Amino acid sequence: MKNFFLNPIIVISLIIATTFSCASNDDISIPDLDKDNPTDVEANTELLAITDLFTGNVIEFDQVQNGGELVTSGFIISSDVSSNINNQIYIQDKTEDAKSGLVIDVELDNIFLTHGIGREVLIKLNGLGMKKVGNELHIGVYNDGAITPISGDDFQDFVIRTNTKETIVPKILTINEIIEAANSDEPLPTILVSIENVQIIDEQLNTTYANVDNNSDVDKTLINCTDEDTQTIILQNSGLSTFKALPFPTEQGTITAILSKNKLIIRDTNDIDFTEERCIDDSVLLHEDFESITETNEIITLDGWVDINISDPQLFTLWVAKKTGDNIFAEIEQGGSSDKYDAWLITKEIQIQNSRTLKFNLNINVNSRNSDNLEIFIVDSVNGDDINFSEDNEINNIVPTEDTNGFIAKEATITIPDNLDSFRIGFRYNKRSSIPSNTEYQIDNIVISEE
Fold it and tell me: Which of 50, 98, 373, 413 could form a disulfide with 191 if both were Cys (CB 3.0 to 4.6 A apart)?
């Protein structure tokens, strides 16, 4: 394959011990390092140049470098000290104002004992590959088109710890900046960020970080307290974390976290500094995360909401409550090869307060897309199966037209018509023909708020 960004590179010889030890009591594997690895290996390519290689297909680095040795470097921003992050090492290109970041998948535990936050590492990319999961780049062993975690036995052959350890300065961002970037052609990289003036939403007050009774991941929704920005963002906590049974702080403050797939991941509870008095937000007119639903795999029956298929009451293609881990969301599945249907999920009535120009936010996941069936409208009123709305009041540019590989955050500004004192939001899955449709939509964390 043609080498399109590197000149032939002189192979640097490297002799390195690759022995690993296992803790006798807990069956834990950690690198057996008495001192830093030899430093006769040097990086010859910046991490940003590596991440820029990805254009949509799995990358095999042996093909990219045309036989030469390709070595990059980065600074560790993750830690598995509290088991909220497991079998992964997050790195970014610089200690401050980072432009690039990715995840190294490994089969190792207790990585923090030898590869702590701020440690610079060199990555020898011969034999490795790169793929994208959501909007996050992962590297691991390349094997016949697949990327698998680096084994404990091979870890030191690929990831070399240097003598350099620096303080990582998180990039200060707002939730709005993260959402805007996610909706653009240039989403933010996987880096360490800090967001100020945030708190957990009212609906999740007095809950623990994750579930005490199982190991499922749990999403917490954080909202910004600043007047000009009432966006929300998801904080994902592992059910394997050592802090999962602790109460989540109810105050407001600053969170430092890794930005991963447009969600936040903390290393431990020290990353959350919520010590200020909780703010009161009366600008949110509607917030629905579906977590109050107790019966999943059933038609959604939230108070005041409407879930109906007006094309044929006998059709069972309706919005249902689904659950992955401990996250509950609304889902409309593919409708089959011949059914024509008009399935609506419509919010409860929302009252106009101080403004008609509102923000509309939601998280959405698109699977198996082969057609575009989802439309979102401002709905005037609902009476039985009579849905009063105008095609002119469709909310555009918010439904993805490609698979998303997981939930992504979307935002739109909507204007409520002057003749309405109240309104609803209607999610319409409209299949107009007998052409097979495989597209599946999942929606979550719906927020309507004043500008």
Answer: 98
